[in-house]
Amino acid sequence: MSNKWKKYDVDELTDLEYEVAINSSTEPPFQNKYWDEKRKGIYVDILSGEPLFISSNKFDSGCGWPSFTRPINDDLINEIEDNSYNMKRIEVRTKNSNIHLGHVFKDGPINDGGLRYCINSASLRFIPIEEMEKEGYSEYIKLVK
Protein backbone atom coordinates (compact mmCIF):
# COMPACT_ATOMS: atom_id res chain seq x y z
CA MET A 1 0.00 0.00 0.00
CA SER A 2 1.47 3.31 -0.98
CA ASN A 3 1.41 6.02 1.64
CA LYS A 4 -0.31 9.08 0.20
CA TRP A 5 -0.29 10.94 3.51
CA LYS A 6 2.28 13.28 4.98
CA LYS A 7 5.04 11.20 6.51
CA TYR A 8 7.26 12.39 9.34
CA ASP A 9 10.78 11.37 10.18
CA VAL A 10 11.66 10.28 13.71
CA ASP A 11 13.99 13.31 13.90
CA GLU A 12 10.95 15.61 13.54
CA LEU A 13 9.29 14.31 16.70
CA THR A 14 9.34 16.34 19.90
CA ASP A 15 11.10 14.78 22.90
CA LEU A 16 7.75 13.70 24.35
CA GLU A 17 6.50 12.26 21.06
CA TYR A 18 9.75 10.30 20.70
CA GLU A 19 9.61 8.97 24.27
CA VAL A 20 6.02 7.82 23.89
CA ALA A 21 5.96 6.55 20.30
CA ILE A 22 9.45 5.05 20.10
CA ASN A 23 10.37 4.25 23.72
CA SER A 24 6.84 3.19 24.79
CA SER A 25 6.49 5.80 27.54
CA THR A 26 3.21 7.32 28.66
CA GLU A 27 2.36 11.00 28.61
CA PRO A 28 0.73 12.63 31.63
CA PRO A 29 -3.07 12.33 31.88
CA PHE A 30 -5.13 15.48 31.38
CA GLN A 31 -1.99 17.25 30.10
CA ASN A 32 -1.85 16.08 26.51
CA LYS A 33 -3.01 17.43 23.16
CA TYR A 34 -6.15 15.41 22.52
CA TRP A 35 -7.64 14.11 25.78
CA ASP A 36 -10.32 16.83 25.61
CA GLU A 37 -10.47 17.31 21.83
CA LYS A 38 -14.12 17.69 20.81
CA ARG A 39 -13.84 18.56 17.10
CA LYS A 40 -14.82 16.10 14.40
CA GLY A 41 -11.94 14.56 12.49
CA ILE A 42 -9.46 11.76 12.17
CA TYR A 43 -6.50 10.68 14.32
CA VAL A 44 -3.51 9.37 12.39
CA ASP A 45 -0.15 7.72 13.11
CA ILE A 46 2.30 10.52 13.91
CA LEU A 47 5.00 8.96 11.71
CA SER A 48 3.26 7.28 8.78
CA GLY A 49 0.09 9.35 8.61
CA GLU A 50 -1.96 6.16 8.48
CA PRO A 51 -5.55 6.66 9.67
CA LEU A 52 -6.09 4.98 13.05
CA PHE A 53 -9.10 6.43 14.90
CA ILE A 54 -12.04 8.72 14.17
CA SER A 55 -13.78 11.22 16.39
CA SER A 56 -17.06 9.30 15.98
CA ASN A 57 -15.55 6.49 18.06
CA LYS A 58 -14.00 8.79 20.69
CA PHE A 59 -15.57 9.07 24.13
CA ASP A 60 -14.81 10.66 27.48
CA SER A 61 -13.67 7.82 29.72
CA GLY A 62 -12.45 10.19 32.45
CA CYS A 63 -8.93 8.71 32.31
CA GLY A 64 -7.19 11.81 30.91
CA TRP A 65 -6.11 10.30 27.58
CA PRO A 66 -8.01 10.07 24.30
CA SER A 67 -10.24 6.99 24.46
CA PHE A 68 -11.82 5.23 21.49
CA THR A 69 -14.21 2.29 21.20
CA ARG A 70 -12.34 0.86 18.21
CA PRO A 71 -9.72 1.62 15.57
CA ILE A 72 -10.76 2.45 12.01
CA ASN A 73 -9.35 -0.89 10.88
CA ASP A 74 -8.18 -3.71 13.16
CA ASP A 75 -5.60 -4.69 10.52
CA LEU A 76 -3.61 -1.50 11.19
CA ILE A 77 -2.78 -2.29 14.82
CA ASN A 78 -1.10 -5.02 16.82
CA GLU A 79 -2.21 -5.98 20.30
CA ILE A 80 0.57 -7.39 22.48
CA GLU A 81 0.49 -8.76 26.02
CA ASP A 82 2.17 -6.30 28.39
CA ASN A 83 3.01 -7.39 31.94
CA SER A 84 5.16 -4.38 32.85
CA TYR A 85 4.73 -2.59 36.20
CA ASN A 86 3.18 -5.76 37.70
CA MET A 87 0.04 -5.23 35.59
CA LYS A 88 -1.60 -7.43 33.01
CA ARG A 89 -2.49 -5.25 30.03
CA ILE A 90 -2.71 -5.34 26.25
CA GLU A 91 -0.42 -2.86 24.51
CA VAL A 92 -1.56 -1.31 21.23
CA ARG A 93 1.06 -0.63 18.53
CA THR A 94 0.75 0.34 14.90
CA LYS A 95 1.33 -2.59 12.61
CA ASN A 96 3.30 -0.72 9.92
CA SER A 97 5.41 1.86 11.77
CA ASN A 98 5.44 -0.16 15.03
CA ILE A 99 4.99 2.86 17.28
CA HIS A 100 3.49 2.59 20.77
CA LEU A 101 -0.05 3.96 20.92
CA GLY A 102 -1.25 2.94 24.36
CA HIS A 103 -3.35 0.09 25.76
CA VAL A 104 -6.75 -1.48 25.25
CA PHE A 105 -8.99 -2.32 28.21
CA LYS A 106 -12.30 -4.15 28.55
CA ASP A 107 -14.05 -1.34 30.42
CA GLY A 108 -15.39 0.67 27.49
CA PRO A 109 -19.03 1.38 26.59
CA ILE A 110 -20.90 -1.94 26.51
CA ASN A 111 -23.21 -0.80 23.69
CA ASP A 112 -20.11 -0.12 21.52
CA GLY A 113 -18.34 -3.44 22.10
CA GLY A 114 -17.00 -2.88 25.61
CA LEU A 115 -13.45 -1.86 24.66
CA ARG A 116 -11.54 1.28 25.59
CA TYR A 117 -8.52 2.07 23.46
CA CYS A 118 -6.60 4.40 25.77
CA ILE A 119 -4.22 6.16 23.40
CA ASN A 120 -1.39 8.64 23.92
CA SER A 121 -1.87 11.94 22.10
CA ALA A 122 1.90 12.04 21.50
CA SER A 123 1.57 9.10 19.09
CA LEU A 124 -1.15 10.77 17.07
CA ARG A 125 -1.79 13.71 14.80
CA PHE A 126 -5.33 15.05 14.65
CA ILE A 127 -6.78 16.30 11.38
CA PRO A 128 -10.07 18.23 11.68
CA ILE A 129 -12.82 17.28 9.25
CA GLU A 130 -12.39 20.62 7.42
CA GLU A 131 -8.82 19.67 6.48
CA MET A 132 -9.29 15.95 5.81
CA GLU A 133 -9.78 16.28 2.04
CA LYS A 134 -6.78 18.60 1.64
CA GLU A 135 -4.63 16.20 3.72
CA GLY A 136 -5.63 13.16 1.62
CA TYR A 137 -8.23 11.58 3.92
CA SER A 138 -11.40 12.33 1.90
CA GLU A 139 -12.40 8.64 1.78
CA TYR A 140 -12.72 8.71 5.60
CA ILE A 141 -14.97 11.78 5.84
CA LYS A 142 -18.08 9.59 5.62
CA LEU A 143 -16.97 7.80 8.81
CA VAL A 144 -16.83 11.05 10.77
CA LYS A 145 -20.38 11.68 11.95
Please name the defining characteristics of this protein.
mainly beta; six-stranded antiparallel sheet; 145 residues; 9 strands; globular; three-stranded antiparallel sheet; Metal Binding Protein, Guanine Nucleotide Exchange Factor, Chain A
Please explain how this structure is put together.
With 145 residues, this protein is mainly beta. It has a domain at 29-129: Metal Binding Protein, Guanine Nucleotide Exchange Factor, Chain A. 8% of the residues lie in helices and 28% in strands. It has two helices and nine strands, in the order H-E-E-E-E-E-E-E-E-E-H. The protein has helices spanning 15-21, 129-132, and strands at 41-45, 51-54, 58-59, 67-68, 77-82, 89-94, 100-105, 116-119, 124-128. It has a six-stranded antiparallel sheet, with no helix packed on it. The protein has a three-stranded antiparallel sheet with strand order 2-1-9. GO terms for molecular function: peptide-methionine (R)-S-oxide reductase activity. Its EC number is 1.8.4.12. Belongs to the MsrB Met sulfoxide reductase family. It catalyses: L-methionyl-[protein] + [thioredoxin]-disulfide + H2O = L-methionyl-(R)-S-oxide-[protein] + [thioredoxin]-dithiol.
